[in-house]
Specification:
Elements lengths: L4 H15 L1 H11 L6 H30 L5 H26 L4 H10 L1 H18 L3 H7 L1 H8 L2 H17 L5 H34 L1
Helix pairs in contact: 1-4, 2-3, 3-4, 3-9, 3-10, 4-6, 5-6, 6-9, 7-8, 9-10
Length: 209
């Protein structure tokens, strides 16, 4: 099934709006005073949604290949930008509410706690991906260099999961982290498998020459 251009526009608009629902919920719960520990809830929620959107963006290619839905590629950039958006909110919560914009104190905290350091590295690696997400940047960098740069997401996702794992390990709560490990391992493992399958015929052809 391939949607028409009009249908695709509607799908994009729906995804755009739905991706803002978690933020709207956070704002509503905060303004109504429904949260017992607002800082902890906002930090956890924005971090969770960063991982959700990273996984959804990584799932686009497998979905396209398995379901033959080439049109879903048109949603991948938006999903990736939402992953960065929630990562930015997650980082700003840490910088603002935890350290009141004291960058030096924040960097000390980053250096002291490994799980924060890993999360910080993952966030920094997301920045060039967000900056180069426009069509103009694709043209400026060239297709091949742009693709190589955006393969950083294969580093960002495991780092994000490791950040989440270490944070939850301190509370002896590894149920969710193990789920994310499985999902990211599957999504990246499928890419490795397809890459090897693609290389096998090429090697066989060279051997026959």
């Amino acid at each position: 099934m391939t949607p028409s251009p009009k249908q695709l526009t509607v799908i994009k608009a729906a995804v755009f709006v739905l991706a803002l629902v978690p933020l709207a919920r956070l704002v509503w719960l905060t303004l109504t005073g429904a949260l017992v520990e607002p800082l902890q809830f906002i930090t956890r929620s924005t971090g969770d949604w960063t991982l959700y959107f990273l996984c959804i963006a990584l799932a686009v290619t497998p979905l396209r290949r398995l379901a033959k839905w080439n049109w879903v590629l048109k949603l991948r950039r938006m999903l990736g930008l939402y992953a960065f958006f929630y990562a930015l909110l997650h980082f700003m919560t840490f910088l603002w509410f935890d350290h009141f914009f004291d960058v030096a104190e924040m960097l000390k905290d980053v250096g002291k706690r490994p799980f924060i350091l890993v999360g910080f590295i993952a966030f920094v690696l997301l920045i060039p991906l967000a900056i180069t997400s426009t069509n103009a940047m694709v043209r400026r960098l060239g297709g091949k260099r742009w693709l190589w740069l955006h393969r950083l997401v294969y580093v960002v996702a495991p780092l994000g999961v490791l950040h989440f794992w270490w944070m939850k390990a301190a509370k002896h709560d590894l149920g969710e982290p193990m789920l994310f490990v499985g999902i990211v391992a599957l999504l990246l493992g499928m890419r490795v498998w397809w890459a090897r399958q693609k290389q096998t015929p090429a090697r066989a052809g060279v051997a026959q020459q």
